Amino acid sequence: MGTDRETELRVLRESDWDRWYDVLYRAFGASAAPPEERELDKSLTEFDRSLAAWDGDAIVGTTGAFSFRMTAPGGTAVPAAGVTMVSVAATHRRRGVLTSMMRRQLDDVRALGEPVAVLTASEPAIYGRFGYGAATFRTAAEIDTSRVTLSLPPGVDDVRLRYAAPADVLDACEAVYAALVPLRPGMLARRPGWERAGLLDPESERGGASALQCAVAERDGEVTGYVRFSTRIGWGESGHDGTVQLKDLAALDPVTEAALWRFLFGIDLMTTLSVRSRPLDDAWRYLVSDPRRCRPRLKDDAYVRLVDVGAALSARTYQAPVDVVLEVEDTFCPWNAGRWRLTGDPKGASCERTADAADLSLTVRELGASYLGGVTLLSLAAAGRVRELRPGALTEASVAFGSPVAPWLPHGF
Asked: In the chain, N or C terminus with fewer CB closer than 10 Å?
């Protein structure tokens, strides 16, 4: 399949990986990756799912996919293609290279029977035209720990915390993460090898901070949580002014989670806690005494695309009974276009083709945005992106599509 008479797509060969990866890295504004990052990325690459766009003997475009299982509302693990490593050389912009790669990739995802694709976007404006909708958001914050205090639940003092080398407690931390995956939409089950990503800590990318540190929390002799972080010391005219940089925090219960946040707030010589990626309903927002001094910020995160509307909507459950006919527009994957009757409840769902009159009209992009339950159909309708054709259908469907916990993607790829 070619984008023009000069460019063609080929499945990536292992012998071409280094050239392919260099094209990718240059497109993201860097000359080379740290050696440990490069080695990890090569070990995780699924070559049969990766594509290179060639112009003669030069690689001018890259894309790939990882085979994941993503939690959907109701705790169902849905097969999902994790779209990754997308780039086009600056010399080949506006020649259809990206469109060709996205077209071929979605065809391949469909052939593999994966009903959903997911990605994180370096430039959010790019992927809407391919049917991806912003489905999860994350919070970042710069918390002034010298002035913000925590309101802690009973039992925090019973949690035992200890420092540990990150690699030494990797298995215990991964067990905590795995236990949390079914509980929150958007989380990805880690495949073998992916646990190493949490330990990646190139010295060249620390920006003056310490090496990665880890503390684990234990209750009754069992690991119930962990935190990975680094510290960057700073001094001002008034004394110490250091920053704790949070990388990862996970806990199996609220008491353990509160104990871990207290630990981060209490590290000596630190006055700021930098939080980069946490769910919208994260516990710290309700533990802190002064949210304004935390300077929270909202950022888009995972973009979801329904590759097979019927299979995707059947794979999740719905928090209230729903029986609605959706008129779906999908110009990029026309097999999804048309009317679908969705019936579901907290126990299960089915979504089949129908000739019945439509209740709601929307594009596949809105379905992707609302799929994990964090973006409501009502809010999309308020923006003019969903049309109600049967009175009452919008509220019914919006409530059903919701999730009791905010979706989140902590597992980058």
From this structure: N
Pairing outcome for strands 239-240 and 235-236: antiparallel
Task: Tell me if residue 285 falls in helix, strand or coil.
Answer: helix
| DSSP letters for 312-362 | HHHHS--SS-EEEEEEEE-SSSGGG-EEEEEEEETTEEEEEE--SPPSEEE
Residue 367 phi/psi, 5-degree rounding, is -65, -40
Give the residue from 45, 37, 1 showing the smallest Cα distance to 20.
45
Identified catalytic residue from 25, 127, 226, 303: 127
Q: Which of 137, 263, 371, 413 is catalytic?
A: 413
CA pair distance 228, 199, nearest whole angstrom:
9
CA–CA distance, 335 with 355 (Å, rounded to integer): 15
In the chain, count H helices and then E strands: 10, 21
Q: Within 13 Å and on the Cβ side, how many CA atoms surround 299?
A: 16
Cα gap 293→277, rounded to integer Å: 18
Per-residue pLDDT of the chain (413 residues; tens, 9 = 90+): 444 457 899 999 999 999 999 999 999 887 788 999 999 999 999 999 999 999 999 999 999 999 999 999 999 999 999 999 999 999 999 999 999 999 999 999 999 999 999 999 999 899 999 999 999 999 999 999 999 999 999 999 999 999 999 999 999 999 999 999 999 999 999 999 999 999 999 999 999 999 999 999 999 999 999 999 999 998 877 778 899 999 999 999 999 999 999 999 999 999 999 999 999 999 999 999 999 999 999 999 999 999 999 999 999 999 999 999 999 999 999 999 999 999 999 999 999 999 999 999 999 999 999 999 999 999 999 999 999 999 999 999 999 999 999 999 998 88
Pick the closest to residue 41 from 379, 362, 413 (CA basis). 413
Strands 51-55 and 133-134: unpaired
Residue 413 a catalytic site member: yes
Q: How far apart are the first and last CA of the chain?
A: 27
pTM recorded for the entire structure: 0.94
Structure tokens at 27: 């497109």
Residue 130 catalytic?
Answer: no
- Among the listed residues 140, 137, 83, 181, the one whose alpha carbon sits nearest the alpha carbon of residue 375: 137
For residue 214, give the H/E element and its range: strand 213-219
